[in-house]
Design brief:
The complex is a heterodimer of chains A (222) and B (231). Chain A has 222 residues and is mainly α. Chain A has nine helices and no strands. Chain B has a domain of 159 residues: Rossmann fold. In chain B, β4 and β5 form a beta hairpin. Classes of the chains: A mainly alpha (222), B alpha/beta (231). Chains A and B meet through α1 and α4 of A and α2 and α3 of B.
Chain lengths: 222, 231
């Protein structure tokens, strides 16, 4: 299973490095989301700084939809999804590989957006361990949910609109947990973010477990 | 000797629409069978059923000694399928696509490299082509890359859905040679076309199975008799 996961992850990341969709489209989109929210809230740092964590994670969440759509668009072209089914790869390995590739892209995006909130909103990046570990747990959780709903929606004719509809409500606990953990860290209360970190960890473990079991039937039957 | 493919009253559905409406068919190991029939007859569905891309709704399907309903993954490792689509990734090069497919089917890195090199050479994907991204290839070159994936996997059962489509004359001749080589190596081949008189398919096949409406409507024992019947 791990061999298959590594194979799929390397393939997906190689495709993304060549296509540069993440760099040329997803990252600018996330930056635009930050900028537009900033404009909506006004130029006052007093208004922007408390909202920095929430705006950061809304931008990540919306960008995650694009990353997941892109991951499955690659499998739709030339019916590569059928090629994956025929390949002999363990479905759980495919799930973990695609999830790892999406999580890696989200982590890079989060690094860029962190610089964005520091520059645009004047956020002081305190509580580094909480910031990094919440990014890790949230990225894994979002990627796991994204791959589950990505494969489910990719077979539908209305996949572009179906994925956000399925993904965003389920990912709401990540938005909540990660925003609260970041709020605590940025406000210098990193020690009180334990409950939110636990929520993110449980969410990630739960959806990785569900996806590992359910991805095979979803790939075959949808 | 057990048949390579044994279908009994095989039914496959797309929603409530019958793709296959009770197909019974035996194909011996080492045999080349030409599946013919008009558009919508069920040729592609029959081939896709044999590799588990289409689900069996009722009946039985034993492929290379494995029950498709119970052991689909094993069957898929033993089968090579060439469909209407190429299953290739446009951003990867020809060689990377082959290596991914071969590593996915369980080959070690060194085996995959050797098999990919040999398959690319056989399909005349040489010079700059192995390092060219598939998205930059012509349709015919992509088709040859897809065939190279099947060749590299060295399957025991070849499922070729209209394999000559999109190939120029030289590539068609090359494909026929490859299929003949596969058979002489002990592989079984099912290939489909909607034309009974398609030269490549007809010359290669030991017999023709004619489908219509998702059923077998004729399975002459010898190609010669079928050819005479058509004429």
């Amino acid at each position: 299973m791990l061999h298959d996961a590594v194979l799929v992850c390397r393939k997906d990341l190689r495709i993304e490095l060549r296509a540069k969709i993440g760099l040329n489209q997803v990252a600018p989109f996330a930056g635009a989301v930050l900028l537009l929210f900033g404009l909506a809230l006004g130029p006052s740092r007093q208004a922007l700084e408390p909202a920095a964590a929430g705006l950061f994670w809304v931008a990540v969440l919306l960008s995650a939809v694009l990353a997941v759509q892109r991951s499955f668009a690659v499998e739709s072209a030339h019916a590569a999804r059928d090629g994956l089914r025929l390949s002999g790869l363990d479905p759980a390995g495919i799930f973990l590989g695609k999830g790892a590739a999406i999580a890696a892209q989200l982590l890079v995006l989060e690094a860029l957006l962190t610089a964005g909130v520091a520059l645009l909103f004047g956020a002081r990046l305190a509580g580094g361990i909480v910031l990094v570990s919440s990014c890790l747990a949230a990225s894994i959780g979002l990627a796991a949910v994204g791959v589950i709903y990505g494969v489910l929606s990719s077979a539908a004719r209305v996949k572009e609109t179906l994925l956000p509809l399925l993904f965003l409500p389920v990912a709401a606990p990540v938005l909540l947990g990660a925003t609260k953990a970041w709020d605590d860290a940025l406000a210098g209360r990193a020690g009180s973010s334990g409950v939110w970190m636990s929520l993110l960890a449980v969410f990630a473990v739960l959806y990785v477990a569900v996806g590992t079991v359910a991805f095979g039937p979803l790939l075959e039957d949808t | 000797m057990a048949p390579a493919v044994s279908l009994r009253d095989a039914v496959a559905l797309a929603g409530s629409f019958p793709l296959l409406a009770g197909v019974t068919l035996d194909v011996d190991e080492g045999e080349i069978v030409h599946i013919s029939g008009p558009n919508g007859a069920g040729k592609s569905s029959l081939l896709r059923l044999c590799c588990g891309l289409v689900a069996l709704r009722s009946g039985t399907a034993i492929v290379l000694g494995h029950d498709l309903a119970l052991d689909r993954r094993t069957v898929r490792l033993l089968v090579g399928y060439l469909g209407h689509e190429t299953f290739l990734y446009e951003e990867l090069t020809v060689e990377e696509n082959l290596l991914f497919a071969l590593r996915a089917s369980g080959s070690s890195t060194s085996e995959a490299k050797a098999d990919a090199k040999s398959a690319m050479a056989r399909l005349e994907l040489t010079g700059r082509l192995p390092g060219t991204q598939v998205g930059k290839l012509s349709a015919g070159q992509r088709r040859r890359t897809a065939i190279a994936v099947v060749v590299g996997r060295r399957p025991r059962l070849w499922l070729l859905d209209e394999p000559h489509a999109g190939l120029d004359h030289d590539a068609r001749v090359l494909l026929d040679e490859i299929v003949a080589e596969a058979r002489s190596g002990g592989a079984t081949v099912l290939l489909s076309s909607h034309e009974l008189g398609e030269p490549g398919a007809q010359q290669l096949a030991d017999r023709v199975v004619h489908l219509a409406g998702g059923r077998v409507v004729g399975a002459p024992a010898a190609l010669e008799s079928e050819t005479a019947h058509v004429a």
